[in-house]
Amino acid sequence: MRTKIIAGNWKMYKTNREAVELVSALKNELSGKLQTGVILCPPYTALSAVVDLVKGTDWKVGAQNIFWELRGAYTGEISGEMIKSTGAEYVIIGHSERRKIFHEHDLIINRKLRIALKDGLKPILCVGETLEERETDLTKEVVGNQIEIAFRKIGIEHAANIIIAYEPIWAIGTGKTATPEQAQDVHLFIRDLIATLYGKELADKLTILYGGSVKPGNAEILLSRPDIDGALVGGACLQADSFASIINSAEKIMKS
Ligand code: PGA
Questions:
Q1: Three-state SS sequence of the chain
Q2: Quick one: pLDDT at residue 175?
Q3: Over the chain (256 residues), what is each successive 10-residue block's mean pLDDT?
Q4: How far is CA 172 from the centre of its chain?
Q5: CA quadruple 215, 126, 8, 118: dihedral, nearest 10
Q6: Does the CB atom of residue 233 touch ligand 1 within 6 A?
Q7: Among residues 157, 162, 168, 152, which one has the least CA distance to residue 107?
Q8: pLDDT value at residue 227
Q9: 134-139 contacts: CB < 8 A, separation 24 or more?
Q10: Which of 91, 129, 134, 188 has the least C-beta neighbours within 10 A?
Q11: What is the rounded distance in angstroms from the CA atom of residue 58 to the CA atom of residue 196?
């Protein structure tokens, strides 16, 4: 079985003090060695503090965004090298909030993926359809397009470092979750698409997370599906008890 991974996307929440409190509380909830991979994605400002706090655990840290150039006069932007220098190893790219609010289209996302890989970061690429697209049966076309463009000019040795997160936009922050069948269906479609692009060996190893209103109450049923390798959690990662409970659901499946 692929290792389950639970990633927490903190979005624009938590000051440095609150970040320290959350990670400390999480460490209290989750003592002992985990078989599940844990990735914490705090805001840029708390990256270094969180990296320090997770020392001694197997937990990893990621940023939520990256700029598409190596360096230069880009006021307010953050490069991959800067992210790496905090000790973070992952970066979320193409989250639907970035696509919608900041107009990041697929070509920008492709540039961000390539620069992140060049800088030695592991991207968590988010894809997903709107409610309208789902209702008009366009889910696979939309998600397929997002993936094909995102992976352009990325060689197989780099593609192996990418995690994909399927996050139906209508399920993010809405309390509506895709059913396990809906999610599994899209995850399998994504794995098959990656097999077409890069071969079956890479596709079989690929981690595909589900995101969109993952909570303690629905995590286990989602995570028990064969192609759902973990979760990208928003709201429920902001409290130690609910995030720990989702991680424990993954642990239960890993150990079964
Ligand atoms: P949510 O967010 O769990 O609050 O729906 C998920 C995400 O945006 O990654």
A1: CCCCEEEEECCCCCCHHHHHHHHHHHHHHCCCCCCCEEEEECCHHHHHHHHHHCCCCCCEEEECCCCCCCCCCCCCCCCHHHHHHCCCCEEEECCHHHHHHCCCCHHHHHHHHHHHHHCCCEEEEEECCCHHHHHCCCHHHHHHHHHHHHCCCCCHHHHCCCEEEECCHHHCCCCCCCCHHHHHHHHHHHHHHHHHHHCHHHHHHCCEEEECCCCHHHHHHHHCCCCCCEEEECHHHCCHHHHHHHHHHHHHHHHC
A2: 86
A3: 96 98 97 94 98 97 98 98 98 98 98 98 98 96 98 97 97 90 98 98 98 97 98 98 98 94
A4: 13
A5: 160
A6: yes
A7: 152
A8: 98
A9: 134/168, 134/170, 139/168, 139/186
A10: 188
A11: 33
Both tokens of residue 112? 């961000």
Instruction: Among 5, 6, 9, 93, name the best residue to mutate to test ligand 1's pocket (greatest count of ligand atoms within 8 A of Cβ).
Output: 9
Question: Of the candidates 247, 141, 140, 137, which has an alpha carbon nearest to the alpha carbon of residue 187?
Answer: 140
Catalytic residue among 95, 97, 104, 251: 95
The amino acid at residue 77 is: E
Structure tokens at 171: 């399920």
Cα 75 to middle of ligand 1, angstroms: 28
Supply 246's token pair.
Answer: 């989702």
CA-closest candidate to residue 9, choices 246, 183, 255, 254: 246
- Please tell me the residue having the least CA distance from ligand 1 atom 9: 234
pLDDT, residue 215, reads: 97
